[in-house]
Amino acid sequence: MTVLTAVGVATVLMVSGCSVHVDAGSAGALKAEQALAKIDGVRSVSGLGTNNLPFAGTVTAFVVTDDDLSDTKLQTVTDAVGRWAVQHTGASVSYSARVEADGFGFFVGRHASESKEVLGVVDDLRSGGHWLGGSVSAPDASGRGSSSIQLDVERPSDLVRGWDAVREVAAAAGWKDVSLTAAAWNKPEKSTLSRHNPDSSISNADSRVEDVHGDPSAEVAAYRAVSAAHSVTSASVQPGRIHVHLADGADIDDAAALIKRAAPDTVALVDGGIITTDDSGDAGEKADPGEYGEANRLARTIDRPGVSAIVLRGPALVTVTADGTDNALSAAATLVAASPTAPVQTLEVGSSKAALEDRGEDGLLLSGSASRFGDSVTVGRQLTGFLPARVSLSDANASVTVTLPTAEDAPALVAALKPVVPSGTALQVRLAGQPSETWAELTLRDGTLGVDALRSESERNDTRTRLSDAVRDAWNG
């Protein structure tokens, strides 16, 4: 019996003239780009190939057509793309294609009849107004599969008009149980592939039950009333729930009253100014607006100059972006003085957006459980000379990260931290401008600072050893 290695197989394939490629997905993507770009009416093609196994892969071709093609011409282009994908799909490579025409994206069906159904919706949307575009997905051949129509509007002020349009198109198509969305961005991306997380949207997805669609007419009426009276910077409108963010927090009470009059049975979440509520989550799992009472109370205590953003990430977490270290420490101290209670569990204050995102490249980040956040602030006050720095003290663990110009600055760091750092704290000491493999990692136990054991001897180096010893000796000396 003859056994062929991968190299042997490749050699046999080359000698036999077979076109199979060891990186089949990558090769197939290039093949699709070259072939589909020759179709009349195609402006550009980009292929995405996945090499699942040697000599096997999948390819998705993203085809952008010329602008303003006639309905007939778009059908011809789509059929040509679909035909090529079907004809070239085999045992080694599977091809699929997505077409974007005038900003409207859709996946090409395996049969021309499937694409024709999608194109009927796309053509109606293309001719119905000056939209950014959108995406369309048809039900499967049985009519039971999921289908969706999303219309991307040019401006948030067009949102209701877009919602009316997408409903009319769905009704004309006769699709049942279709997911409908009108979406808007304050600063929209050009391509449908890069448009995510719209600033404003109207959807028929029921906020209370997953995979169920309803009628958001009452909520749309409420949104229309609020947007007519106040400046709305973002909104999410669904059956049973509406969330609007106002440019001016002073308008919150009036906006809430408008919603109550237009949609008395709707759950309404209204915020504004620099205070934002992260209301993301699955249907049926979103918090009731009443649960945000304590988080909102804390947020209002620091809604002032020097604080650029406050985000309530659920009722249990308040995050704050301040303008600089002094403002961060001041805001954090104010939160401590406000005596946070349940359901707030965690507080985070960063001296910049980068600090809050814990990129490790800027400023001061203070975080902690509500019960220990005051200790985080106490430690943070000692670290203004050792930035970037991070302090995290919770009921479960404690950690401090600091930055030193040189290992010779270890005594100054110890003098600042020793009076305030609690036992059990993990201490990471970084050297400015040095890679992570040179950082020292130590832990404080019963007043003694010890160097953490390395996971592998390969992690040991002279810079890390010298820094670790300098900090430990300065602390324990």
What features would you describe in this structure?
It is built from 13 helices and 21 strands. It is an alpha/beta fold and 477 residues long. An eleven-stranded mixed β-sheet has the order 1-2-3-4-5-6-7-8-9-10-11, with helices on one face. A ten-stranded mixed β-sheet has the order 12-13-14-15-16-17-18-19-20-21. Strand 2 (56-65), helix 3 (71-88) and strand 3 (93-101) form a beta-alpha-beta unit. Helix 3 runs antiparallel to helix 4 (112-127) and helix 4 runs antiparallel to helix 5 (159-173). It is flat. The termini are far apart.
- Give the termini separation: 73 Å
- Indicate the radius of gyration in whole angstroms: 29 Å
Low-pLDDT parts are 1-19
Number of helices: 13
Mean pLDDT, to the nearest integer, reads 91
Query: Order of strands in the sheet with the most strands?
Result: 1-2-3-4-5-6-7-8-9-10-11
Instruction: Please give the share of residues in helix.
Output: 25-40%
Structural class: alpha/beta
Strand content: 25-35%
Secondary structure: number of strands:
21
**Overall 3D form:** flat
What can be said about the biggest beta sheet? 11 strands, mixed
